[in-house]
Amino acid sequence: MALDLSAIxxxxxxxxxxxxxxDVILYALSxxxxxxxxxxxxxxxxxxxxxFSVATIFDFFWAVAKHxxxxxxxxLHGEQExxxxxxxxxxxxxxxxxxxxxxxxxxxxxxxxxxxxxxxHSNGTTLYTNTMSIFSRLDGGFGGEEGSSRTVEFxxxxxxxxxxxxxxxxxxxxxxxxxxxxxxxxxxxxxxxSGFEKPIMHGLCxxxxxxxxxxxxxxxxxxxxxxxxxxxxxxxxxxxEPIQTLIWKTNGxxxxxxxxxxxxxxxVIDNGEFEYGDx
Length: 279
Known about the structure:
The longest helix is centred in the last third of the chain and has 16 residues, at 203-218. By secondary structure, the protein is an alpha+beta fold. It has seven helices and ten strands.
């Protein structure tokens, strides 16, 4: 099994998905929202958590994996960046088109497969651009370019906000209902074959917890002001383990953030960037 480098540049899509308020609320519940955030969990005056955007393009993720011919037992989410062009309505039909933009060779460490997609709402507005990378631990050494990664320099001082959270031991079972059915997050045997003790948290679920923390700290009740969110996934997290989202405000509607394991202090998501403001 080897990566199919001919897939680079080939169009993926259109991928069409209808959604409604129940999907928006299910997503919010799956990333830890509850009675304390009724704006995201009750259809009255409902607003959309911006990272719902990644839950609407899971079929694009699967298409990138399939077209690149990666080995699924070595696949982990690498990086994610979302540019928000317009607020996300609570219902409608979404059309996503994208492509695999590159495959990078990290040698014995593995390979990075990068894809980019644009999603348009049925009302005619462009909603968001997603740039994602899959770190495929078993597909390196094919002789390609190594590529580079985005770097972020954090302030030396303490964060301006620290938001604690405790995902449920069963969190992946709920999150997968939003559309991410990868066996690594539910099948104990597949998880062990992939080198883990048991199923792990979806990185994008933890990403959603971080988004809630950023909204609460920086733009409470105004998710439509989110302009950009980006990060790198650095370590696996097991369900039921405590996390902290650390947030540093910078200038001009920007913040840097990371998610750490509250028990060990090790980062599970790093190089976080968040931009917000009026359009």
